[in-house]
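queue> pop job 88
queue> type: inverse folding (structure -> sequence)
queue> payload:
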């Protein structure tokens, strides 16, 4: 195995350069997923039955079908139907954002439900609007309660970003596979990619714990 690492030594920087691409998918996907999930969670706890049904339908679609299928539909099927060209990067971001929104919405909805309803009633008696109550009282507590789950979602998205390699995007896994194909060595390049994913997950987990400690009680 050491001999194998020597053979791909000059290619390791090429593999590592895919970390930026992988992180871009994870970070951008989570950011859009967080905002989309927040809107969906608000929809799901609203008093409007139509909005609640829409939120439930959206979630069931994106949680009930494989992410790879969603990626293929956006990258291959939509351009066929609409006659537009979607880059691999854009398709990946759209697919991950839409998928993450469904999962994040359930996480945040659970967080909202976990906040004592009595706080809502007290704030309402004091004359606060629904927007103020949600923004200043309910939502901050909900986010703190579900922070570990949100971090897990980001970690899942980071690992699932490897799916973009099947549509030709030069992410971490794709670069490792290219090096493996060129040298006819698969163990060593894939180990390098695996260690990179593992290191990224450890960093994200440590960062989440740090943020959690810094959040006000």
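queue> result:
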């Amino acid at each position: 195995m050491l001999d194998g690492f020597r053979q791909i030594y000059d290619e390791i920087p090429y593999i590592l350069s895919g970390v930026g691409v992988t992180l871009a998918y994870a970070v951008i996907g989570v950011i859009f997923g967080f905002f989309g999930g927040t809107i969906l969670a608000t929809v799901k706890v609203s008093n409007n039955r139509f909005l609640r049904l829409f939120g439930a339908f959206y979630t069931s679609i994106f949680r009930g079908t494989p992410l790879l299928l969603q990626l293929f539909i956006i990258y291959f099927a939509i351009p066929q139907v609409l006659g537009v060209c979607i880059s691999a990067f854009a398709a990946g971001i759209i697919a991950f954002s839409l998928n993450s929104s469904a999962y994040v919405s359930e996480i945040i909805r659970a967080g909202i439900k976990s906040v004592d309803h009595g706080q809502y009633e007290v704030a309402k008696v004091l004359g606060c609007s629904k927007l103020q109550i949600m923004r200043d009282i309910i939502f901050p507590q909900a986010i703190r309660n579900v922070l570990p789950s949100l971090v897990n979602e980001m970690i899942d998205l980071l690992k699932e970003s490897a799916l973009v390699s099947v549509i030709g995007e030069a992410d971490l896994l794709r670069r490792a596979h290219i090096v493996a194909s060129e040298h006819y060595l698969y163990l060593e390049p894939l180990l390098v990619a695996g260690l990179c994913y593992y290191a990224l997950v450890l960093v994200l987990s440590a960062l989440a714990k740090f943020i959690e400690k810094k959040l006000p009680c």
